[in-house]
Amino acid sequence: MRIAQVTAVYPPYAGGIGHVAEEYSNRLSQSGEAVEVFTVDYQKQIPQLQDVGGVIVNRLSGIVSYGNAAILPELVWKLRGFDIIHLHYPFYGGAIFAYLASIIWRKPLVVTYHMKTKASGWLGICFKLQRLFIEPFILHRARVVLVSSLDYAQSARLKPSKLVALPFGVDVERFSPSDKPAVRRKLKMPEDEMIFLFVGGLDDAHYFKGVDVLIRACAKVSKDHAWRLIIVGSGNLLSTYEQLVEEFGLAGRVEFRGKVANADLPNYFRAADVHLLPSIDRSEAYGLVTLEAAASGTASIVSDLPGVRTLVVHQRTGLHVKPGNEHALAVALEWVLQHKEKVKFFGENARARILEEYSAVQCISRLQELYSWVISGGKSK
């Protein structure tokens, strides 16, 4: 099959949508499929055409671009000749042209609906107009609409007729448990403290990650316990968060490690006792980092949000907390500090659940089955 993966973002940009598109592309290519990626040339520092491990990556500038959005009429022409057009939605300025290409070239459209975006002001108005006047046509045209969980799809009020739940998978070999003390020594982390870990973007686009809530919660945690918060990520809000840490007197408790090399990331999950995903609203629809932590044998505390909560079984692989509630998060942090054996038990359960339900190999096999079904003439699923 010739497969086009159409996505607003793609590595080296850090973010869940791009990570999923990359994982799909690489694994499909490794299994013998011909894959091309079409994305926005948002950095303008990377070659516009690359062959990355057998995957052709096209970075398009478009007529007008803003952040991760761009008006890309050239997509219509470039998407000819593919057997499947797989759109990672939302893609503002690009989705409509993927839709038109599907009609003009009479090729099936598969949509992965990642999340329903939220914003205020004029940007919020743009999002609403997209949902009212463009999104319905795209979803109607799609042969299947893939969602990470039916839990999130229901909260986003997606119609069930074409929905297929396909959880995003994780590489269970790359993310796996290891000798925690040895890994901590390698990363220069204390061996006698409980390590809390946050991994995510620290920029305006990832405002919903709840880093400020996390820092405020840490300020409420007892200083009698030995603990440390490691924050991995970068972005324009970094200085704001650093100031907040200083304001609450947490300089000795919170470390910002910046953007970590992809090859080093698994060790951070292995070193941690508890992974944290304190997202504040439904802009967070899943949380791949939670799967990576679980695959590494690490428990998680996550916000009780649609989609996100499906990745953690409360009191079995981790804990759920009320979104945006610093007090509830602080209580959860205190609880795990007082129940270290439970935390270890959660981590073991998390790894077992990943092997059973969230292996990337299983995910890609299912995706290929769906592609074949669509090409053979399926109209709904």
Task: Describe the structure concisely for a colleague.
The protein has 381 residues and is an alpha/beta fold. The protein has helices spanning 16-30, 74-78, 95-104, 121-133, 135-141, 150-155, 180-187, 211-220, 238-247, 265-271, 288-295, 326-338, 340-357, 360-375, and strands at residues 2-6, 34-40, 49-52, 55-60, 65-66, 69-70, 84-89, 109-113, 144-147, 163-165, 194-199, 227-232, 254-258, 274-277, 299-303, 318-321.
Global mean pLDDT: 94
Net shape:
globular
Low-confidence segments? none
Taking the sheet with the most strands, its summary is: 8 strands, mixed
Helix content: 25-40%
Major sheet: arrangement of strands? 3-4-2-1-7-8-9-10
- CATH level 4 superfamily of the largest domain: Glycogen Phosphorylase B
**What gap, in angstroms, lies between the N and C termini?**
20 Å
- Determine the structural class based on helices, strands and strand pairing: alpha/beta
C-alpha-based Rg, rounded: 21 Å
